[in-house]
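User: For my dataset I need records formatted as: sequence, then structure tokens, nothing else. Please produce one.
Assistant:
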Amino acid sequence: MDEHIDEPRLLERSRQGDLAAFNALVERYQQSVYNLCLRMLSSPQAAEDATQEAFIAAFKAIRSFRGDAFRPWLFRIASNACYDEMRRRRSRPAVSLDEPHGEDSHTIDVPAADPTPQDRAEQQELGALIQRVLSEIHPDQRIALILCDVQGFDYAEIAAVLGISLGTVKSRIFRGRLQMRQVLLEQGGELLPSRFRQMSEG
């Protein structure tokens, strides 16, 4: 993300209908919005569709946007696009998008210094496991976790994105982390770093 662009000016120009200015905002945020959608939906194609829908909706609504908190506003639109896609899935469940497909679906990497081929294989397996467990927890908890632990939003920003109270944000994140930890220990405890296992057992 380019930290040097003049976002307030781009927002003002976008509100006046300047498509080039809005495209600059898209370029700044498209990867992080796509990552949110991919972790929520576990499908590159569905994530691409939701990302496109989110930016189209944002462009249509940009004239009415007030203030300078663009990122929470944009991510709220993206979150709604993810929920819309999940509702569509429930109405046409014949083809499941819940299982990741292809290399791009391993969305959570576990960093390591100079990993061996075996280390890389285990990291990939753990990343796939984490994404699978993440896709199984309640969507309300899942999106709060993604916004906090992946996107780096603070609790107040998450509350603004999701339109909920600060206490509800904290509760969803706590319950989501607890559920993920328990399932990860049950399904892939041997893959987890020792510090994770110790934290989980404490």
